[in-house]
Write a structure and sequence with these properties.
- The chain is of the alpha/beta class.
- It has one domain: NAD(P)-binding Rossmann-like Domain (Rossmann fold).
- It is built from eight helices and seven strands.
- Helix 4 links the parallel strand 4 and strand 5.
- Helix 1 runs parallel beside helix 2, helix 1 crosses helix 8 and helix 3 runs parallel beside helix 4.
- The chain is globular and about 45 Å long.
């Protein structure tokens, strides 16, 4: 892989939360970052503006990962602008929590579509490019819920567990081509997705006694993108305060 200044990264769901922290951290390493968003254009531009303020390089790119056509178009646009794509961080995600007995099919389908089918839509064209380049890094954001399950999150837990299986299988397929595939599994992190949770019930289950910070997840992702992590492949790295 080339030096950081020549690398290009795509971070999905990078307008806020963990994705935003990852985009900022990668840009701080000198990597050109495409800040992906689906609906919150203003937040995506704010992420890009902060990267520029910190003397980093970035561009905003809209893409709904549930659409194969939009994913193909996004990869094509990145390659036209930069000529290569070295890092893909599959971070885009949603929650739609319900007890399983009460869960309507749209809640199941949209969560699976966003996390798991979205992985397929975007990663497949990226892998084809990385095979041509003979190198790359793919980091999939899973969740502690995909390892242990969470009541009220059968759809989300199933999707995140699927990401872990996909990570391990793809790592075996393409590891010999200079492409590593790993998953990072955050626990409870201070983001908009955890703002509505009951902390009185959650904190006693976390050995370190607090929620994690998006920057703590981003630091692990950034390490996996470096040459020092070239022998880390097919792994699931928890950032969860010891709860798993």
């Amino acid at each position: 892989m080339d030096t950081a200044s020549n690398k290009t990264a795509l971070v999905t769901g990078a307008s806020k939360g963990i994705g935003r922290a990852i985009a900022l951290d990668l840009a701080a390493q000198g990597i050109f970052v495409f800040v992906n968003y689906r609906s919150d254009k203003d937040a995506a531009w704010a992420t890009m503006d902060q990267i520029h303020f910190q003397n980093g390089r970035a561009a905003v790119i809209r893409c709904d990962v549930t659409s194969q056509e939009q994913c193909d178009a996004a990869v094509k646009q990145i390659l036209e602008q930069r000529g290569r794509l070295d890092i893909l961080v599959n971070n885009a995600g949603i929650r739609d929590d319900h007890l399983f007995a009460m869960m309507k099919k749209p809640a199941w389908e949209m969560v699976i579509q966003t996390h798991l089918t979205g992985f397929y839509h975007l990663t497949r064209p990226v892998v084809r490019q990385m095979l041509r380049q003979k190198g790359g890094r793919i980091i999939n954001i899973s969740s502690a819920a995909g390892q242990t399950g969470n009541a009220g999150q059968v759809n989300y837990s199933a999707a995140k567990a699927g990401i872990i299986g996909a990570t391990k299988a793809l790592a075996r397929e393409i590891g010999s081509r200079g492409i590593t595939v790993n998953a990072v599994a955050p626990g409870f992190i201070e983001t908009g997705m955890t703002a509505d949770l009951n902390l009185d019930k959650i904190l006693p289950s976390i050995p370190v006694g607090r929620l994690g910070k998006p920057e703590e997840v981003a630091a692990v992702v950034s390490f996996l993108c470096t040459a020092r992590a070239a022998y880390v492949n097919g792994q699931v790295i928890g950032v969860n305060g010891g709860m798993v």
